[in-house]
Design goal:
317 residues; alpha/beta; Quinone Oxidoreductase, Chain A, domain 1; Rossmann fold; 7-stranded mixed beta sheet; 6-stranded parallel beta sheet; 16 strands; 27% helix
Length: 317
């Protein structure tokens, strides 16, 4: 099968299409024929080597954690899936060792899969698994947001941000979004109540919020000062030394702890995401679709920043 690998950390040109063996599923796994995946920030950060303390230095490495496709084979101990089923999910390891979801086939643990929502197509499905479960975890589980809460979302036009805006709105929260000027009307249409130009807005002029969702990673302690009493701040951006230090500092000093999380979604969350999408709580937002051969262009687009939603990689028919 064709798969994307890189043999050293570096720029997007490090990504190569190689021929490798089709993986064989274990008794607890499903072999999925991948129709599409998408590029997440963790894919870019890993390829650049910024997370090598976690990802290690062994090569080759695969890329891609979003899975959208059809079931090809089912392990002996797996129930609930049959060949031909449309499925989506998130790969267990955020740092694929040899191949990731940017490949024609993937063997994945069955509990990390669910049926694709009936109201979206398979390409749309590739845009949502990782950012959808991240948005639910950040807003509902870590932020404990509920109806009537005032929520600030930084980086609200990106993959996680656009999903978080929609999900917070579906919960009945009052959403304030910080984005670039070009994305203000776009995020307003997603359900934000107030949209602010991030360059024209001074942090000290912001009001008080019950929940702050951060996808940027800068000035975390400065934003933390705008939490209401018993407010909660959640960040998913912690690739810089400064952001990691701010998270650690908040855990030691002061009542407003900055929460974060990292790793595979808990069992059952993919199925919950399916329900949320089918109820209209989160819908896919796609900036562009690329063939597998152009995956480096998708990585460049994410590095450039300022995009809207996800960059999807088409692999299969």
């Amino acid at each position: 099968m064709r798969a994307i690998q890189f043999f050293e950390y570096g720029d997007p040109e490090a990504l190569q299409i190689v021929d490798v063996a089709v993986p064989q599923p274990t008794a607890a796994q499903v072999l999925v024929r991948i129709a599409a995946t998408s590029v997440n920030h963790v894919d870019v950060e890993t390829r650049l080597g910024r997370l090598k303390l976690l990802s290690g230095r062994r090569f080759p490495r695969g890329t891609g954690i979003d899975v959208a496709g059809t079931v090809e084979l089912v392990g002996a101990d797996v129930n609930g899936f049959t060949p031909g089923d449309r499925v989506w999910g998130v790969k267990a390891s955020l740092f694929p060792r040899t191949t990731g979801a940017a490949a024609e086939f993937m063997a994945i643990d069955a509990h990390l899969l669910s049926a694709i929502p009936t109201n979206i197509d398979i390409l749309d499905a590739a845009a949502l698994p990782a950012v959808g479960v991240t948005a639910i975890t950040a807003v509902r589980d870590k932020g404990r947001a509920k109806a009537g809460n005032r929520i600030l979302i930084r980086g609200a036009a990106g993959g996680v941000g656009s999903a978080a805006v929609q999900y917070a709105h579906s919960l009945g929260a009052h959403v304030t979004a910080l984005v670039s000027e070009r994305n203000m009307q776009f995020v307003l249409a997603l359900g934000a109540d107030v949209v602010l130009d991030r360059k024209a807005t001074h942090v000290e002029d912001l009001g008080s919020f019950d929940v702050i969702i951060d996808t940027v990673g800068s000035n975390l302690l400065q934003y933390r000062r705008h939490l209401s009493e018993h407010g909660r701040m959640v960040t998913i951006a912690f690739s810089s030394t400064r952001s990691i230090a701010a998270i650690a500092f908040s855990a030691i000093y002061g009542r407003e702890r900055i929460r974060t999380f990292f790793g595979q979604p808990p069992r059952g969350l993919i199925a919950q995401l399916t329900d949320v999408v089918e109820s209209g709580g989160i819908m896919p937002v796609i900036e562009e679709i690329y063939p597998l051969e152009k995956i480096a262009d998708a990585h460049r687009a994410i590095e450039a920043g300022g995009g809207r939603g996800k960059h999807v990689i088409r692999i299969g028919p």
